[in-house]
Write a structure and sequence with these properties.
Elements lengths: L7 H22 L6 H5 L3 H38 L4 H20 L2 H13 L6 H32 L5 H34 L2 H4 L2 H30 L8 H25 L7 H6 L12 H8 L8
């Protein structure tokens, strides 16, 4: 049996799994959203849009909640009993990936509403207005609810303990797409702010300016770096073993982005700072669990391949 000593990697896995489970449990059992379609608007069409998107998103949380239970249980088993068989590990990962894909598919109604609004809504005929509308809703929601779950399902299908190169390839592709998804979705919030408040919505406070820069340029830089890393890894002949130090660095930086935004509100937040950015990033963000990712990324960053975790 593998060593059962507690290591930074094991603790990181446990805390990330717990964060994933707890955030989803809170989202599932917090029913304050019920009826908000009546509170927020008197427009029948808008009321139906809010109703259908809220309900479908809620339904999508259920499989994610189940995935959280599986993740926590598996890590606890790993810490107590030792490393499971490779086949069991892959089967667990496949189930979690499928459940996660179903969650993202639950957001397709939001994409459909955005597309319908783009097609039927009033829009000034200029390239800037068209691009702004596409980037603030249609493209981010379509990519996250259609492209991402498709790639997650492909990864689940491709995972095979006997095909390490295929595993690395599709893991890197999925991770890179995930980075672009969060760049698009978070940038779209700032686009909304710019449309309503103008540049002042970004420059009114230093923390807003920094958040804007980290979101629009920082996440993009990380996604582009991941793209280059993925392309270089896939093109290597034979494909090299996944560089856990680089993967750990990217995971750490990505998690620090969420942690920074969260801590910014705790230490500098207040009514004067509250805006669409914080309303969506803190109040409607089901992925804040990712602020725990540095606890997984740092052990990978300093991974010693000769040691058994």
């Amino acid at each position: 049996m593998a060593s059962q000593k507690v290591t930074p990697l094991k603790m990181g896995l446990l805390i990330v799994a717990l964060a994933y489970f707890l955030f989803n449990a809170h989202s599932l059992f917090n029913l304050s959203w019920v009826g908000e379609w009546n509170r927020l608007t008197t427009n029948p069409t808008a009321r139906f849009d809010i109703y259908i998107t809220d309900v479908s998103a809620f339904v999508g949380i259920v499989p994610r909640f189940i995935a959280g239970i599986i993740a926590v249980s598996s890590v606890i088993y790993y810490m107590v009993k030792g490393t499971p068989s490779i086949n069991r590990i892959f089967n667990i990962l496949k189930v979690i990936l499928v459940l996660e894909a179903i969650y993202w598919l639950g957001l397709t109604t939001t994409a459909a509403v955005e597309i319908r609004s783009f097609i039927t809504g009033p829009l000034q005929p200029s390239i800037i207005n068209v691009l702004t509308t596409l980037m603030s809703g249609v493209i981010p929601n379509t990519v996250e609810s259609v492209a991402l779950p498709i790639v997650l399902l492909i990864l689940a299908f491709k995972l095979d303990p006997n095909k390490p190169s295929t595993n690395i390839k599709w893991t890197l592709i999925t991770g890179t797409l995930l980075l672009f998804v969060f760049w698009l979705t978070n940038m779209s919030i700032w686009i909304d702010i710019l449309q309503v408040e103008g540049i002042r919505g970004v420059t009114n406070y230093p923390v807003n300016t920094l958040s804007f820069i980290l979101t629009v340029f920082g996440l993009l830089a990380l996604a582009l770096f991941s793209t280059g890393f993925t392309v270089a890894s896939v093109r290597a002949k034979p494909m090299a073993k996944l560089n856990l130090k680089i993967a750990g660095a990217m995971i750490t930086v990505f998690g620090l982005y969420f942690l920074w935004e969260y801590l910014t509100w705790i230490f500098f937040g207040g009514n004067y700072l509250w805006s669409t950015w914080y309303a969506w990033f803190l109040g409607h963000n089901l992925d804040l669990w990712m602020l725990s990712l540095p606890l997984l990324g740092v052990p990978l960053l300093f991974d010693n391949e000769k040691e058994n975790p």
